[in-house]
Amino acid sequence: MTGWLIRGARPLGGDPADILVRDGAVAQVGPRLAASSARGTQVIDAGGLIALPGLVDLHAHLREPGREDAETVQTGTRAAALGGYTAVHAMANTDPVADTAGVVEQVWRLGRQAGHCDVQPVGAVTVGLGGTRLAELGAMADSAARVRVFSDDGSCVSDARLMRRALEYVKAFDGVIAQHAQEPRLTEGAQLNEGEVSARLGLTGWPAAAEESIIARDCLLAAHVGSSLHVCHVSTAGSVEIIGWAKSKGWQVTAEVTPHHLLLTDDLAQDYDPVYKVNPPLRTQADVTALRQGLADGTIDCVATDHAPHPLEDKETEWETAAFGMTGLETALRVVQHAMVDTGLLDWAQVADRMSLRPARIGRLAGHGNPLAPGAPANLTLYDPAPTEAVDPACHASKSRNSPFVGMVLPGRVVATFLRGVPTVLDGKLA
Amino acid sequence: MNRHLISAADLSRDEALLILDTADELARVADRPIKKLPTLRGRTVVNLFFEDSTRTRISFEAAAKRLSADVINFTVKGSSVAKGESLKDTALTLEAMGADAVVIRHSAAGAPHRLARWVRGSVVNAGDGSHEHPTQALLDAFTIRRRLGGGREAPAGAADHQADHQGEGLDGLKVTIVGDVLHSRVARSNVLLLSTLGAEVTLVAPPTLFPVELGGWPCTTGYDLDAALPKSDVVMMLRVQRERMNAAYFPSEREYSRRYGLDSSRMALLPQHAIVMHPGPMNRGVEIAAEVADGPRSTIVEQVANGVSVRMAVLYLLLSGLDPAKATTGADR
């Protein structure tokens, strides 16, 4: 059995150490491991690189089945591996919708075949994302895909009674409802955060209250039935406050924030370039500041990409007709370094916590998000924080090019990714 | 001048005055037996209308034709483009035909910004969604200057069309704009342009028809029309769409009309010299009473006539400085 000896990496940004990987697991971690232990292994010089547990994304759109022109499980997981991820949750809004055991098993199997990272399907909460009837959540939970996260992402489970039942029902198999919080009546035709910019541009506003009111309601429901709520892509300062309040009560509420909401603001829409059109919309600088603070103090548990690839023709159009969404898997860690680490808000151990440990726990993925310690599955990412380079979506492995970070100079580079001891990325390229 | 006219915010005071002064000159053409100048001979102006607006299209068409440009009207029905030809393909087609200027009307805010990325000719915004309608603001400014320029003592109805207002702004004039500010491209463009020209703009509407945050709009706002009227030199009524009441912006047409409509009794609150404007099309009996619309202080018909002069000036200034567009072939691209 071959293994890998990773020389001189800094686990979680700490002191340099050697990491020995054998049989898919971490065998040893320590300063200057003896050369003898390297017998039969390949050696990587990782001097200066930060070693992190393999990143876990709770929220990605891999588009297969149905929109293979935008992304496939194959291309999406390549993008994930190149971004340092060893596991991604694939959202349910495919065509057909992932609302049956059959579809989630198909997606799960496609992930296994692709092999670049683990693909954990998310099941739909309601049949066809229609918001009226519960999907067979138990069948998806019992399937080979072992679904634990359920979400109608893209639409909100707006019916309060249905949301309550969903939260209640998934307690039987330790499931969690991941809510896309968007009050539908308050956001009819909405295009952009409702504020100064939407007023100037004449675009229909998307009030923060449309997100916050649903989050508040769902926190109360989760508390009432004693179940787990996860809030997708939190985008407003008010949402952070409400989630902080729910957590202070000891309720089982978790939340994620996207890289783009940690960095970008609504004024980027001023030229009506739909690459900045996303759901939930980009908000204001005050929101960005609150989201960063919330992620730093743990009110927001994790970073999730909401990677949403779209073909060129769906973005090269008028703002109002363009699709919502941005790619993110290949830039997430770099954006987090830029927005959170280089600003002093998070250290690398906390980055590991917010991008691997906590999302794995929320997603109920036992094999991921483990500390880099002997015995743990060897899922890890080697990252060089030093280089800086402009983002060029043309170089991305994702099938789509709709990165809002296009042209931005960002720090960092993912050098290697290991999935259970096997490199999926080496020297910044697919292995 | 910029190559395009997309927002009234693109215009400095000097540029706006240049357009108004040029329009003054060109207006005299309308009084001649042959209403035509050779200025834009050989140039092509495309009227690209994705939204029905006969009056705006005709106005631009007349303006281009009086300057001897070739005019192509390209009307795309409704939003059938959604699954048909994209705006980009339409733009590339126009580009290949060698359009010197594209006048675009579209229901989506920002469509002219997108178009400007794909064509080399000048883009003129003839109304994009709820965003802007800069030539409407220019014709409104032009109308105000003709009626009230050189002091507001001139008696209403006795505007001297031959008066020379060259170089004059609208400094100190108080303009009240009333109605659906939230959805109005006319209001946005007018706030920007009239303030650039020195006017003091007040917006009056029910709170539901204001944007939640106006940020740095150069104007004041209020909910009470009766309070604003006595201080107004100009009152501009915006069209209010009946379907707004279905989205609960206001309870009923009658209530809207009672609180925000301009009728004869409200007219009495206006100073003697004040004028009444409306960009059209009007809902008579809703935002404006028929006797007000047809009264001597209404400039509504004049606005239409002035629209042609102002659009002539815009096309002239945008195009006369530029080289004629050449038709492109696949090999050029």
In words, what does this structure look like?
The complex is a heterodimer of chains A (431) and B (333). Chain A has two domains: 3-50 and 376-430, Roll (Urease, subunit C, domain 1); 54-362, TIM Barrel (Alpha-Beta Barrel). In chain A, 26% of the residues lie in helices and 22% in strands. Chain A has helices spanning 73-82, 101-114, 137-142, 160-169, 196-201, 208-225, 237-248, 285-297, 332-341, 348-362, and strands at residues 3-11, 17-22, 25-30, 41-45, 50-53, 55-60, 85-90, 118-121, 149-150, 176-179, 192-193, 205-206, 229-231, 253-257, 302-303, 380-390, 409-419, 422-426, 429-430. With 333 residues, chain B is α/β, with parallel strands linked by helices. Chain B has two domains: 8-131 and 306-332, Rossmann fold (3-Layer(aba) Sandwich), CATH 3.40.50; 134-305, Rossmann fold (3-Layer(aba) Sandwich), CATH 3.40.50. Chain B contains eleven helices and nine strands. Chain B has helices at residues 13-27, 54-66, 87-97, 111-118, 134-148, 185-196, 225-228, 253-260, 264-267, 290-293, 300-320; strands at 44-49, 70-75, 101-106, 122-128, 174-178, 200-204, 220-222, 234-237, 275-277. In chain B, the strands form two sheets. Chain B has a five-stranded parallel beta sheet, covered by helices on one side. In chain B, strands 2-1-3-4 form a four-stranded parallel beta sheet, sandwiched between helices. In chain B, strand 5 (174-178), helix 6 and strand 6 form a beta-alpha-beta unit. The two termini of chain B are 27 Å apart. Chain A binds chain B through residues 194-196, 198-205, 207, 271-272, 313, 316-321, and chain B through 79, 82, 86-88, 106-111, 113-114, 128-132, 183, 185, 188, 211-217.
